[in-house]
Design a protein that fits this description.
Layout lengths: L6 E4 L10 H11 L5 H15 L5 H9 L7 H16 L5 H12 L3 E9 H11 L3 E9 L5 E6 L6 H14 L7 E4 L5 H4 L4 E5 L3 H10 L2 E3 L3
Parallel strand pairs: 1-2, 1-5, 2-3, 5-6, 6-7
Antiparallel strand pairs: 3-4
């Protein structure tokens, strides 16, 4: 019987990268006049409600995805590599990149698990040598244009757990001896799955959980 592989699961925003990729993407699109002020106000209001715990992370992302309604995905794919080089790569967290390099040297199966959108993350995975990308996909309609909704579940909170369990079976991963890295309480369903959970610059809520359970706490640098 083939032995199971040890994996290392990395959240992206504020874990592998020091910033929120969604904010950077909006700045990139705002600079190119692709976003209308009305949409920005809607997202700002949703972020405020989220901070007040009146709106879930999943619902916030669903609101942000409405930007893509009626647009062509290929137009975004074409600029994704340049966006990564100009906006995301300079904000990669050095200490967490070192952790990813360590796992790669150990022969571990590297997985990026993020609520962010696939076209934004594909250049990251290619550049850093990850083995698998679990993320949010955009739904395309029969006319070939985006619907402004996700294809399948948004890859966040409990959905991260469900998706990770599924691929663990498909790829023969040993979760008990695997590692996971996350920064917020929404990463708990993922962190709880592995034998070696690590928190990175954790939110107050996650810091309390980490202190109670004796989890390793890391910084970006």
């Amino acid at each position: 019987m083939r032995s199971k592989r040890i994996a290392a699961f990395f959240d992206f925003d504020k874990t592998l990268i020091e910033v929120e990729s969604g904010r950077m993407a909006m700045k990139w699109m705002w600079d190119r006049r692709m976003i209308l002020p009305g949409y920005m106000l809607k997202v700002l209001a949703a972020r405020i409600l989220n901070k007040l715990n009146l709106l879930s992370e999943e619902r916030l992302i669903e609101i942000m995805l409405t930007f893509y309604r009626g647009r062509n995905l290929d137009n975004f794919r074409q600029g994704s590599e340049q966006f990564y080089q100009d906006y995301l790569k300079p904000s990669l967290a050095p200490a967490i990149i070192q952790r990813a390099d360590f796992h790669k040297q150990e022969g571990h199966f590297l997985v990026l698990v993020s609520a962010s959108i696939r076209y934004l993350l594909e250049p990251v995975v290619a550049d850093l040598g990850f083995d698998l990308l679990l993320c949010t996909d955009l739904e395309e309609g029969e006319d070939g244009f985006l619907t402004g909704r996700s294809k399948g579940p948004v890859c966040i909170e409990e959905n991260k757990r469900i998706i990770t369990l599924k691929i663990a079976g498909e790829y023969g991963l040993d979760l008990e001896n695997s590692y996971a890295y996350g920064d917020s309480k929404s990463d708990l369903p993922l962190l709880d799955l592995v034998g070696h959970p690590h928190v990175v610059e954790p939110s107050n809520a996650l810091a309390k959980v980490a202190a109670t359970r004796g989890w390793t706490v890391l910084t970006h640098r």
